[in-house]
Known about the structure:
By secondary structure, the chain is an all-beta fold. The chain has one helix at 11-20, and strands spanning 39-44, 51-56, 61-63, 80-86, 89-94, 99-104, 110-114, 120-125, 130-139, 142-152, 157-166, 168-174, 177-182, 187-192, 197-203, 208-213, 219-223, 231-237, 240-249, 256-260, 267-271, 274-278, 297-300, 307-310, 319-323, 329-334, 339-344.
Amino acid sequence: MKRNSFPSLSAAGLLALLTTACNPDKEVIMPEVPTVTNAVYVVNEGTSNGAISLYNKSTKTVVRDVYAPANGNKRLGPYVQNMTIVGDNAYLVVNGADSVQVVRLADFKRTTGIGGFSQPRYLLAAGTDKAYVTEWQGSFPAYSAGRVAVLNLTTNTIGKRLTVGVNPEQMLLVDGKLYVANSDGNTLSVINTTTDAVESSIAVPDGPKNLVRDANGNIWVLCSKYGAAQDFLVRFSPAQPTQQTRIALANDYTNGNLRTNATGSTIYVSLGTGTYALDPQATALTPKPLIRRNFYGLGIDPQDNTIYAGTATFSGDAKVIRYTVAGAPIDSFGVAVGPNAFLFR
């Protein structure tokens, strides 16, 4: 995925959280100290309550939930789907609460909440003043056409909404075009970000949900739909979207987590048969996976390509395992429930 700059809490801030999070009666005062550049934010989807964990790479210290102690021990709510950094703020997409919560990165205190969404999934910023949020509509088994909400980041209000395919998931911004994966169908919607209008759609196999761009400028799409005859990794040039390279995969509901390293020179995908590393010219999976297991969440550290992998545990707290670029395990640390994504600073 595209590399971003993510400010973090300091080591002193971590210590303050660790020593006060267990005491609900104690007021949390976040120290005013310089930020460090050594943190990993872990998005934990949760069940009744999601959480953002914070891992310090230098001290190997973990704050299980950085949000609650900074906000009077209030919780985020069910199903924290996504976190996006824009400037000095973090936008937390809380699917089960139909909201986006905005926090200051300096202390993780909530500044506002944005409501009015319908089952929000992912938020992608297009500059400092605008973002897009995918929304589902309806309920199983009769979901209806989804939407992309255009969010004004200056006023934190929803502007226009664009109708796309059913159950839109991740988005990718390439040269002024926003590609939207419609997961309960077989298309990508293409939005012109100047006019904020849907201008075309691209046919792909069933179940597109993850999108990345590689070092050659090509777009990769992971297509996986429960019960489909076949899953696929699809690659195409934005200039020629109908000319596609398709890598066939065994259908598996755990197929997911399409990522790249910072330069886009390696594509990572976590499948039911393991986690694979591919080069941008690949036309087939490698004979053996890089790591012989599937993960619920996957992230690649842009500094050194360390692989962060979250386990699919929802009955209790989960674990993140770190691997070298060669797939050898380094260590692990505990986080909250259902780690689905990582943000690096």
